[in-house]
Design brief:
The chain is globular and about 65 Å long. By secondary structure, it is mostly helical. The longest helix has 15 residues. The chain has 3 domains: 90 residues; 114 residues, no CATH class; 83 residues, no CATH class. It has 20 helices and no strands.
Length: 291
């Protein structure tokens, strides 16, 4: 690793391409200790580094860096949370934290959730990280939760920060999350008439009632075999059934239903998802573009 990145002059004078090249080298470096010490001691270099992490935030190289398990959590959170004080960052909290949480894998999300102070994490960020957890990470996180009713309730209150539609979209996108929240709500709902808990339970039950439908579709249409086929070779009756059944739902539930089917691999990919959306909207000109 060249020493340029340790000098303020490099960050002030170098071109975008030079900085990108050096960052890509840095992100692959085995030991980050010296550079992290440099950031700690020189605030201006730290500011430049975080700025360029944002500048190259669409890069897969940055994603790999953010998921390094040797990255101090304080440093990781500085990168992610920096935009809250950048005037150019005008995304709403759901988009903002959704953008950054999507870059993190299950293990790194769990690491943040367990080892960071909940007070320093925005509730929407916590909720976004939860959607990243796989089954094993959820088990580990679940075991880390305190079992007092108030602690469980405080955790569930994260979802007060979302509209009902946003909340159901999150649940539909992550069936594992939906099942664990159902378990937690079940621990409290029998002893509570809290309107929020009742609303959350209703959202969860709406999503879970589609599980049997999803399993039946997988059985009838041999989904695993369909995955290996091109779009033209797949059974069009599956798409027709989904469209027919979606049209029987309330308008506000249609997209949630389709998202749930996609997350459960009944809708196999983004191509099928867009095709169904366009048929539902009767936008036949765009359908022809897909065929």
């Amino acid at each position: 690793m060249k020493n340029d990145i340790f000098n303020l002059n490099f960050w002030e004078k170098s071109s975008i391409y030079q900085i990108q090249y050096q960052l890509e080298n840095l992100f692959e470096f085995e030991n980050l200790g010296l550079f992290l010490d440099c950031l700690e001691k020189n605030q201006k270099i730290n500011d430049y580094f975080i700025y360029y992490c944002w500048f190259f935030s669409d890069s897969s190289i940055l994603d790999k860096y953010l998921n390094r398990k040797d990255l101090p959590l304080e440093h990781l959170l500085k990168i992610i949370l920096a935009g809250l004080s950048i005037k150019e960052a005008k995304m709403n909290p759901l988009d903002y934290f959704g953008f950054w949480s999507e870059k993190l894998d299950s293990d790194q999300s769990l690491r943040i959730l367990i080892h960071s102070s909940k007070n320093e994490l925005h509730p929407i960020f916590i909720a976004s990280l939860l959607t990243n957890l796989n089954a094993k990470s959820w088990e580990d996180f679940f075991q880390s939760l305190l079992v007092e009713e108030q602690d469980i309730y405080d955790f569930l209150k994260l979802y007060k920060h979302f509209s009902i539609n946003e909340r159901e979209f999150i649940l539909a996108s992550n069936p594992i999350l939906c099942k664990y929240l159902n378990l937690l709500v079940g621990l409290l709902i029998s002893t509570s008439e809290d309107l929020f808990l009742i609303s959350l339970r209703n959202s969860i039950e709406k999503i879970l009632k589609w599980e049997e439908y999803s399993n039946n579709m997988k059985s009838v249409f041999f989904i695993e075999n369909e995955m290996e086929l091109s779009i033209r070779e797949r059974n069009s009756n599956r798409i027709s059934c989904i469209i027919h059944d979606a049209r029987n739902l309330q308008n506000e539930d249609v997209e949630i239903f389709l998202v749930y089917l996609k997350s459960n691999s009944v809708i196999l990919d983004e191509y099928e998802f867009k095709l169904i959306e366009r048929v539902m909207s009767k936008d036949f000109s765009k359908i022809l573009e897909l065929v």
